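Researcher: I'd like a structural prediction for the single chain below. Treat it as a standalone chain; there are no partners to consider.
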Amino acid sequence: MKFELGRCLLNERLKESGKSAEWLAIDLLFKPERVYDFIENKRVMPLKVAISIADSIGCDVRDLYELIPNDIEVQGV
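Model: Treating it as a single chain, here is the predicted structure.
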C-alpha cells in the first residue's frame, strides 16, 4: 500500500516527550528555524533527519507525519 504524507506531527511528539523545538535543534546541531520549518510543514524531513529526530525524542519514524493511504492501483505493475 502506498501512503501520502499528511501534516507533520513533530510538535505533538515533542510535547509528548517533554522536549522543545529548541532542545531538538541543539541536540541535532540544527538551526532552530529548520526544526520550525518541519513543524510548520514548510519543509519535509529527509529520511535520515526523521530517523535522527525519532531517536532523539523516543518515537517511531512513522509517528512524525500523518500517513494517508493512497489506494490508487498502478497499471502494469
